[in-house]
Amino acid sequence: MKYPFKKISVMWRSSRGESRVSIGHITVSGNGNISFLYDKEGFQEAKRKSPEFSGYPGIPFSESPIEDSDYLKSLFALRLINLEREDRKELLDFWLLDDNLASDPIMLLAMTQGMSMSDMFEFVPSFQRESKNKQAFITDIAGLTITKYDISALKPGGRLQFEKQPDNIKDPFAIIVLYDGNPIGWIKRGHNYLFKGRKNGIKLTVHKVVNNAVYPKLYVKVVY
What we know:
By secondary structure, the protein is an alpha+beta fold. The protein folds into two domains: about 1-130, no CATH class; about 135-224, 2-Layer Sandwich (Alpha-Beta Plaits), CATH 3.30.70. The protein contains six helices and ten strands; from the N terminus they run βββαααααββαβββββ. Strands 5-8-7-6-9-10 form a six-stranded antiparallel β-barrel. It is globular and about 50 Å long. The two termini are about 20 Å apart.
């Protein structure tokens, strides 16, 4: 399978609402094999934020790449969503997956981002345009607790705008998302690299609004 990405960043944060840190990345080869390499600076930043941080479970820190593809695949398979559930079709539709794509564990991990309620790791692919045909993925917006935008006013299908923020001290590749000129939040790290050097050809729309008082979430559809 030809993937619309060559790298999947393994992101971590100390708690919900905190900034994401790239602690390493998965490289996907053309034949479907994968390797993993820790990001030394990201790992150290994570340690500063949380001294007990010891890296991704099952992968001791090393400055050399881990190239045991079978082991890595078995480890990351624990992050895959259960496709035996009754709402399988609705779940795949939400993440823009068909049965063929969902049968590939690397694609399934990348598109669903391997999120879990039990920890703060995420798997965020750096998408890239591979053909003239339009492609799409779903991502959730970061920083809702910072802007405190009332997402209940947003409706699925609603068009959103975005702007680059090169002067952002936390992330020079930051992309802020707006509705009618009002800031909602940011494209999360990893996914934001798609916007680098591009002004046109990307469309953002509201995908789903989870208006939870404690932990609101806004999912958007990115067409590129």
